[in-house]
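If your schedule permits, I should be very grateful for your opinion on a structural question. Please examine both parts with care and let me know of anything in them that strikes you as inconsistent. The record follows directly beneath this note:
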Amino acid sequence: MLDRLQALLRKAIDAAGALGALCVFLLFVLMIVGGLGRQLNLQVSGINDLVAWLCAAASFLAMAHAFRHGDFVRVTLLLEAVSPAMRRRIDALCLVIASISVAYLAWSATAFTWESWEFHEMATGLVVIPIWIPQTTSVLGSWLLMAAVLDELITVLRGHKPHYQVAVEERHARGDFSADV
């Protein structure tokens, strides 16, 4: 049962990472369109609103994917100097603290978005839409990150290496140290 839930979570995290990448691509397209449109004296004012929302969406949707694949900034100097058993304890403690912090982030993002929906709050820029629509990406990304952190905590408590550590070790084994620069 747990393995099936973890597989489903991995698929959801990968899908959210792909959506985050799509947002980055759309940012690229909109910025090119905006730049060309300004040069050609075309009306491109609302693009700034879309770019802002896509930046937030790309960040939040990609967080869980980046975390799981070892792309979050982590200070591992101490972890590399201790025994594997001590490393597991330190990892577990850090993941408990991260779980609490990310749970608060997810709760806050959800409450904020819920209030925006409840009060029918509209975006104040040139593109006037219900603001809860772009805010939903922060809610989804926060909850996925919380699920990813809890999954890693369960993995560590079961005595296994966290996926982010395995991902970094695999990159290093291939001679890829580009994420460490």
